[in-house]
Amino acid sequence: MANNSTASDISTHRLEQHEYENNFSDIHPLLDGYQASVEASRCYFCHDAPCVVACPTSIDIPLFIRQIASTNNTGAAKTIFQQNIMGGMCARVCPTETLCEEVCVRNEAGGKPVKIGFLQRFATDGYMETGDHPFQRASSTGKKVAVVGAGPAGMACAHRLSALGHDITIFEGRAKSGGLNEYGIASYKAVDDFAQKEIDFILSIGGIELKTGSYLGQGLDLDTLRSDYDAVFLGLGQGGSNNLRLDGEDTDGVINAIDYIAQLRQADDLSQLSVGRRIIVIGGGMTAIDVAVQTKLLGAEEVTIVYRRGISQMGASKYEQDLAQTNGVNIVYWAMPVELVEQDGRIGVVRFERTSLDNDGKLNSTGDGFDLASDMVFKAIGQVFLSDVFAKNQAPELTRGRIRVDDNRQTSLGDVWAGGDCIDGGDDLTVAAVEDGKVAAMAIDKFLTSGEV
């Protein structure tokens, strides 16, 4: 049976200042020129390279690596940016171990894959430091496009449309642009305010006006945007979080993981963040890993991720699971929460039951239970799209609770496109959102210049 947990277990300043700085330093420091050259020389420069097919944005990976190998780092960066204007952030946060690097031919040769993500960062970071921009903005077409949401999908769409000569206004609800890149990923993956540096880099093409504090459904409505602009792109993300649907979910200490990560990402002083001693994270995706590792790095003594299925079903990659465990996080598979127990006015114990799959693949409780003491519980079981942003407006059709789009990311409304994880089938990956924005931009450009879709 778990030991009692009290409110006194929650505190700030758990570590010395130098420990915070060390714990939240860059998880993968930038390669130097020699290291990049050596790594680039490992590439086979395959014809019909599988890594290109595996990249959601179809970056010509063998080409940019060959350019690095020949010290043409500017050319390498431009090759990347041509397909992915957020190549810098993607080099940091992409699960390359399950995308391009997983299919690297080096794996078949019995070795380790080429470090494609590291090489991509080497090229893009170096180019961004020059202050140049890889695109030249075309002459103005006089057409105006509204982009709602300044996350990866919205920024990629706005950038490509601006490059094509259209005038763009981005409406963003929060105080800063960047979406999950700014608010929702682990701090050690994007240090030195890189998310905002990348936004500045994107906006430097010109022709893009950014309006923050503008929420769709709160003083900003879709009908008006469609009337005032020639086309609209929706990169709304998913504004709501799934609940556990258990009694006691509103107990003090039961927290949405994404909200805590956002607070951490915006903190000027990490020592001021409250963190518990015994933490439970419920979920199995990247958000679960990010909040678990970061609370451990903030000084939590025990951090346990509990996931209802097995290791192979976990949304977080094997690399991320290993990262959590090497940072001292425990992962318990095949268990689900059934009761949240309050003690002294806040969460004290979480009761779990073991799970298993029946012959039809349905998840069931085995009836075998156990308790874990906890003074903080993080819910990381996914997010939901909030369709009430379309209230009293003509709304695009939804499928499975998200916006239905075609292959060009066009919605059921002829002048509205959408991308990112607000669309049906959309992934919660920066690289996938960038591709959505890019594809939509090309379709919008065709619509604006020829009237075709």
Keywords for this structure?
alpha/beta; FAD/NAD(P)-binding domain; Fumarate Reductase Iron-sulfur Protein, Chain B, domain 2; 3 domains; 16 helices
Give an account of the 3D structure:
This protein is α/β, with parallel strands linked by helices and 453 residues long. The chain has three domains: 158 residues, FAD/NAD(P)-binding domain, CATH 3.50.50.60; 96 residues, Alpha-helical ferredoxin (Fumarate Reductase Iron-sulfur Protein, Chain B, domain 2); 162 residues, FAD/NAD(P)-binding domain (3-Layer(bba) Sandwich). 33% of the residues lie in helices and 19% in strands. The chain has 16 helices and 19 strands. It has a five-stranded parallel beta sheet, sandwiched between helices. A five-stranded parallel beta sheet has the order 8-15-9-10-11. It has a three-stranded antiparallel beta sheet with strand order 12-13-14, with no helix packed on it. Helix 15 links the parallel strand 10 and strand 11. Helix 4 crosses helix 8 and helix 9 packs parallel to helix 16. The N and C termini lie far apart (62 Å).
Write the layout of secondary structure elements.
Elements: H1 17-23, H2 33-40, H3 50-54, H4 61-69, H5 73-83, H6 87-93, H7 105-108, H8 116-128, E1 144-148, H9 152-163, E2 167-172, H10 180-183, H11 194-203, E3 208-212, E4 215-216, E5 219-220, H12 222-228, E6 231-234, E7 240-241, E8 254-256, H13 257-266, E9 278-282, H14 286-297, E10 302-306, H15 318-326, E11 330-332, E12 335-343, E13 346-357, E14 363-373, E15 376-379, E16 383-384, E17 398-399, E18 402-403, E19 416-418, H16 430-450
Parallel strand pairs: 1-2, 1-6, 2-3, 4-5, 6-19, 8-15, 9-10, 9-15, 10-11
Antiparallel strand pairs: 7-16, 12-13, 13-14, 17-18
